[in-house]
Amino acid sequence: MTATGQTSARPRSAICSRSRWPLLAQPPALVSYVCAIVVFDAVLIAVLAKSTAFHAHHVAMFGALTACGAVCIEATRRLGMPAGVSRDLLSAWWLPVAFLLPPVYALLAPIPMQILLQLRVRATVLYRRVFSAAAIGLAAASASAVFHRSVSVPAHLSAGEGGPIAIAAACAVLFTVLNTALIAVAAHASDPEGRWGEVLWDRERVLLDAVELCLGVLVAVVCGLNLALLLLVLPPVVLLQRSLLHAQLQAAARTDPKTGLLNAAAWQREADTEIVRAQRTGDALALVLVDIDHFKKVNDTYGHLVGDQVLAQVAATLRTQLREYDVVGRFGGEEFVVLLPGADVHEARRVAERLRTRVGRMVVPAEQATITVTVSAGVAIMNVHGEDLIELLAAADLALYRAKELGRDRVCLPAAPVAPPPRSADGAAGAIP
Fold first, then answer.
1. CA separation, residue 99 to residues 23, 146, 232, 363, 404 (Å)
2. pLDDT of residue 430
3. Burial status of residue 5 (CB atoms within 10 A of its CB: 0-12, 13-18, 19 or more)
4. pLDDT band, residue 355 (cuts 50/70/90)
5. Which residues pair with 381 in a beta bridge?
6. 419 vs 380, which has greater pLDDT?
7. Which one-letter DSSP state was computed for residue 23?
């Protein structure tokens, strides 16, 4: 796993002067936390290494499990790895190390893996790799210590006894909880305004964690039986790893990297599906086009990194104020678009006003200032302002332009069409009294 981080809002000159040390550009709380975890991990490795007797068969098992992890990484290298926090199945190799070997090996196991990921898959900011290795190592070492304290002979795990297997499963859960907690604290230190739920668990993450834990316990049982059986376990793990990364890359291809919302192409596909459904069922549907007012001034004054933070926070605010089935995306630049299935004109205006109000209350910290922004919004209603997506977008764009003309920070609908002049009985246009 990779810990997420967000660059703090700083003027360009300050950021450029520290470009060689990206960690120093982060919030002080994050810098302190990362350094503390890494130092604690290094000290613990040194202490346990002095008190551990290294045996040849332990080293051979550690090397075999590390080699299996390396094969998984190399087998998926051509697929690449999505940026940010990505999921993999490398726990299938870390957990057996934790269960079958002394805890010092669990501390060491993530280090060669993270080096290989950095050199062979995707180079990222170095402190994130170092922190990931430390966080995973500490979590795995904790699980290892608990397991060895509870099971005096690790070989009993491969005997099929219910007790050791249940303890291994519980320790695997402990590993996941500790690892997630360590990364969540780093993410929160990076972005104190972010919600804990975004960096902890959701249904999809729990499912993936369960798969990883099951694999880790099974590989530990097989490895304890006979080290050569790893040759039979490796191919299915590689296949699962490739499938998981392929799904993540597909999701990343649909996502705008700066905001985490759907990109324009993915949003249009989702919107087309909803519009076809609304046309078939006759349900109401609305489209809201949202634009950040004077966004160029933010970029010119504070720099594009701060501008990116504003985009990300506006996107997060929009997401929190919408229903799960509303379709929201970044349409380009500082413009966002929202499709509201089932919303009539009154509901659409109410939602748009709520979005405008919430964004107006939003505060983005910069180094020597706090930034507030406003948004303007244009609303278009299906079968009132347009019959398909192109017509709805055009109508909402006209409404947005009207909101800008009227002074910004407001919600508008398209101007009502001008009624044709009344006609006389002979068909000629008559004068309006």
1. 34, 9, 20, 47, 63
2. 40
3. buried
4. very high
5. 286
6. 380
7. G
